[in-house]
Design goal:
There is one protein chain. This protein is of the alpha/beta class and 560 residues long. The protein folds into 2 domains: 133 residues, Chitobiase/beta-hexosaminidase domain 2-like (Chitobiase, domain 2); 330 residues, Alpha-Beta Barrel (TIM Barrel). Helices cover 33% and strands 18% of the residues. It contains 19 helices and 21 strands. A hairpin with a 2-residue loop joins strand 10 and strand 11. Helix 2 packs parallel to helix 3 and helix 10 packs across helix 11. Bound molecules: acetamide.
């Protein structure tokens, strides 16, 4: 391992830090690393767990140390850090624990790629260059959605993705825990949710636009309350907040399979859905279903320390409420007319339930757009997650909402990565690596007030067509590397130069990313049921979504 290698690594950091000053010389970390903590007592254990992300064993010392951590208010911007490496040692300065985690992650990138293995080849020398890095993020919300509802991701996979998120300085894991095709949380109060809602008898394996073909194989899984506590704590140690999504009133097919009496209209023999697309399974706005939701949130929300809870609100086919006497009674009692007003009243109740737990609601932009067509606008306390393009995001920002930008183009990483027959079956596409790398999240013509409402950005890993966790790796990486650059925001143009080296780190970590030259033979769609489908042209799809967002309506699956 030459000194030149260590200096080279300073040129291949991802995401690129804001300021890097490379000095002369190197430092070799000892296998047993003396660490001195200038850290408030209540933060010491957590800071030591952050140091433990390095591939060497650390021991706390009072005197001379190789690594010194200084944690103090105002030392850097929030989540920022200064990493100072000299030939004598490393000093990490940060205002908060997240900054320490990010300093450690940058230090890890300066070490040999073996730092990403679970155990290093013997003889690996942990050499880092002399360097000073000053760094802090552009966006406060640097998110990734994992859809564990359509296809369950075992806990070990979620933990692995948390490791990878942290390595890329992402800080928000949005767990999509409920949908028409699966419910993924143990409930002691309502056990049928996990007993009945967590599995389906079969899954659609064909594309939307083809005849529905099913695999005939049961699919399912759920996280126990202890699993979720573990995931939340593991994430917190890596500076990641877990935001749960329990969506209403649409996308509730699995919930209603467990408790059909809360559906509208009540269908006694509902099953967990086995087809993809937009379904008309809706939670009923009724006193009975509101009481159910309240008890459910009382049980589940304490599992998540996050200040935010995502309550869905997307793709709710409100006409399913028409002609339901239960909904009519609810509307009459409250003097509501029209489905947008009934929807608004339901979401207001949900908002109140969250407020009782000190939580701020997050909804998809459909919720904002639907309410914009009725008499009662969405409360501006709700954070709007805008997936149907920049225009609806801007409207929400202008109306006073904080927004997270999660547009289909270029943050839906379930879309294929190149318009090429080798790419495996996906809903459509392409969303290329270049699309992600060249994305400027906030259009130039937004006002300063609107821009200031942007809390951050998020990439989405929906899993309708992703039954194999290996495919999750393929779809997330390297697009997530480019996404992390945008989220962190150092605005460099040379990711293409750094990325091949960074992918060596991911290879060492065992990530089955898409090679820059295209899929490996076993990653291709082939000619079987995973064969490539072009789907609806991207421009048409985006126009459909933007049009629906503009009118407050639901865009049904835009495929024929
Ligand atoms: C969404 O894609 N329905 C948020």
């Amino acid at each position: 391992m030459s000194h030149d290698d260590a200096r080279e690594r300073a040129a291949h950091l991802v995401p690129q830090p804001h300021s890097v000053l490379l000095g002369a010389g190197v430092l070799q970390l000892p296998a047993e690393l003396p660490v001195r903590l200038d850290v408030p007592a209540q933060e010491r254990a957590a800071v030591l767990r952050a140091i433990a992300l390095l591939p060497v064993t650390s021991k706390v010392v009072a005197g001379r140390a190789v690594v010194q951590v200084r944690l103090g208010a105002g030392a850097t911007p929030p989540e920022g850090y200064v990493l100072d490496v000299t030939e004598d040692g490393v000093t990490i300065t940060a205002a908060d624990r997240s900054g320490v985690v990010y300093a450690v992650q940058t230090l890890r990138q300066l070490l040999p790629d073996a730092a990403y293995r679970q155990a290093a080849p013997s003889g690996t020398l942990w050499v880092v260059p002399v360097i000073r890095v000053e760094d802090s993020p552009r966006f406060r919300w640097r998110g990734m959605l994992l859809d564990v509802a359509r296809h369950f991701l075992p806990k070990r996979e979620v933990l692995r993705h948390i490791d990878l998120m942290s390595a890329h300085k992402l800080n928000t894991l949005h767990l999509h825990l409920s949908d028409d095709q699966g419910w993924r949380v143990e409930s002691l109060r309502f056990p049928r949710l996990h007993e009945v809602g967590s599995w389906r008898a079969t899954s659609q394996v064909s594309h939307y636009s083809d005849e529905a073909v099913h695999d005939g194989t049961p699919h399912g899984g759920y996280y126990t309350r202890d699993d979720l506590a573990e995931i939340v704590a593991y994430a917190a140690d890596r500076a990641i907040t877990v935001i749960p999504e329990i969506g209403v009133p649409g996308h509730t097919g699995a919930l209603l399979a467990a408790y059909p009496e809360f559906g509208s209209p009540p269908v006694p023999d509902r099953a967990v859905h086995t087809n993809w697309g937009v379904h008309d399974a809706l939670l009923a706005p009724s006193e009975q279903s509101l009481e159910f939701l309240r008890l459910l949130f009382d049980e589940l929300l304490p599992l998540f320390p996050s200040p935010y809870v995502h309550v869905g609100g997307d793709e709710s086919v409100l006409r399913a409420w028409d002609n339901d006497p239960v909904v009519r009674a609810f509307a009459d009692k409250r003097g509501l007319s029209g489905s947008a007003e009934i929807f608004a009243a339901l979401m207001a109740e949900v908002r109140q339930m969250l407020a009782e737990h000190g939580k701020t609601p997050v909804t998809w932009d459909d919720s904002f757009a639907t309410q914009a067509t009725g008499a009662a606008a969405e409360s501006t306390t709700t954070l709007v997650m805008a997936w149907r393009g920049a225009e609806v995001a801007r409207r929400a920002a202008a109306a006073g909402h904080d927004v997270v930008l999660s547009p289909v183009m270029p943050t839906y990483f379930d879309y294929f990565q190149e318009a090429h027959p080798d790419e495996p079956l996906a809903i459509g596409g392409p969303v290329t690596l270049g699309d992600v790398a060249s994305w400027e999240p906030i259009p130039q013509d937004w006002s300063q007030v609107e821009s200031a409402r942007v809390r951050g950005i998020q990439c989405q890993m929906w899993t309708e067509f992703v039954e194999d966790p290996r495919l999750v790796d393929y779809l997330l990486y390297p697009r997530t590397c480019a996404f992390a650059e945008i989220a962190w925001g150092a605005r460099t143009q040379d990711l293409h130069r750094r990325l091949p080296h960074h992918l060596d780190r991911l290879a060492a970590a065992g990530v089955e990313f898409r090679p820059l030259t295209g899929p490996a033979p076993w990653q291709r769609g082939g000619t079987g049921r995973r064969a490539h489908r072009a789907g609806v042209p991207m421009a048409e799809r985006l126009a459909n979504y933007a049009g629906a967002a503009a009118t407050g309506t639901v865009a049904d699956s835009p495929d024929p």
